[in-house]
Write a structure and sequence with these properties.
32% helix; Dna Ligase, domain 1; five-stranded antiparallel sheet; 3 domains; D-amino Acid Aminotransferase, Chain A, domain 1; 19% strand; alpha+beta
Length: 356
């Protein structure tokens, strides 16, 4: 449902998009309630606090948003960002119009100097090229893929939550690969990152990744949130929409005791038996410093959600920069308001025109 709301609205005019996004996300919250999702029981004073906080920005916010995000973590805060306002207004203000093409996976390695997976084949507007942007035939593309033990094929734009990702190896056959390559106008084929032994100790079927959210404040990137995304046992994808588990990484690079999934399940361990509490993320300091360095290359995007893997050498590998938006729900149900101590500054920037 969430992906449909985002994809459909891309094709419409801006005022109607804003209206539809706000209404659509509010409707989605009500549907969650009807389908059995639980909300924290707020006192009258807490509901009033939510209303009063958002009134200063001219917004009439339903306290159910705070009740939904705080149900499992038991942390009430009026500053939880409603998804309706985030996708309808806030995220749009946090990036520069006209720069949206930077979200295209086929241009990211030209923008960022982080370590990234090797690109094997590109397809941009049905134009097939190799990793150096030299035009090649589809037969040559197939040959390049066959030289690898396995490749990952991703739509290079317009996807959410890992949708459309396919793994291919020579055992799957050339016909299958040709079918995939012909089926999309925009795609990227890359090597499959060999994960660090720590990530493999969670589950070997998934390239478990870290979602790092950074924000530009006073001209410098700051860290908002880091979450470890783990695929369920046997899954190739670590996305929450695929049943993945999300664990909180604290500021020192260690996992907190519990992880809260989007279905409101509270976990202390993975299906594999991997216990979260106190586990140290390899190369965490290097990863955060790299995210800061990459964000400094695109400061016109105030907020970026980065996806990193840790490879077998222990190096952070940038998988994707989610521009201009990234999901905020799994952050807020785990850590509290996404903007944390910067919430007032972000909302003053968005709604009052102040400096961020």
């Amino acid at each position: 449902m969430a992906n449909k709301i985002l994809s459909v609205t891309k094709k419409m005019n801006e005022p109607f998009v804003k209206f539809l996004l706000i209404k659509g996300w509010n409707y989605r919250l009500q549907q969650k309630k009807k389908s059995g999702f639980k909300l924290k029981s707020l006192t009258k004073a807490q509901k009033r606090e939510v209303k009063e906080y958002w009134k200063q920005y001219g917004k009439n916010v339903n306290p159910d948003w705070a009740a939904y995000f705080s149900y499992c973590n038991d942390y009430f805060d009026p500053r939880y960002i409603p998804e309706s306002l985030y996708y309808g207004e806030i995220a749009k203000r946090l990036h520069v119009n006209g720069m949206g093409g930077l979200h295209h996976k086929n241009v990211q390695e030209q923008i960022f100097d982080a370590k990234q997976p090797e690109t094997i084949v590109r397809k941009i507007d049905n134009f097939i090229s190799d990793k150096n942007h030299q035009p090649i035939s589809i037969n040559k593309a197939i040959q390049l893929c066959k030289e690898k033990q396995e490749v990952i094929i991703k739509p290079s734009t317009g996807t959410y939550g890992g949708s459309g990702i396919v793994f291919w190896s020579p055992i799957d056959g050339e016909d299958k690969l040709k079918e995939i390559l012909k089926s999309l106008d925009q795609l990227i084929v890359q090597e499959v990152v060999e994960s660090h032994q720590f990530m493999q100790s969670i589950t070997t079927s998934t390239i478990n990744t870290l979602r790092v959210v950074t924000l530009i404040v006073d001209g410098q990137p700051v860290l908002l949130s880091t979450l470890l995304r783990m695929g369920k046992e046997g899954s190739r994808i670590d996305g929450v929409s695929e049943g993945g588990i999300i664990a909180v990484v604290n500021k020192d690079g260690y996992l907190e005791e519990t992880a809260i999934q989007l279905d409101q399940t509270i976990r202390k361990s993975h299906d594999s038996g991997f216990v979260f509490k106190g586990q140290a993320i390899p190369s965490y300091k290097e990863l955060i410093n790299d995210a800061f360095r990459q964000h400094s290359r695109i400061p016109y995007f105030k907020m970026v959600s980065w996806d990193y893997a840790i490879d077998k050498e222990g190096d952070p590998v940038l998988i994707e920069a989610n521009i201009p938006t990234g999901q905020i729900d799994f952050h807020q149900i785990n850590i509290g308001p996404i903007f944390g101590k910067y919430t007032d500054r972000v909302l003053d920037y968005v709604y009052k025109g102040k400096e961020l």
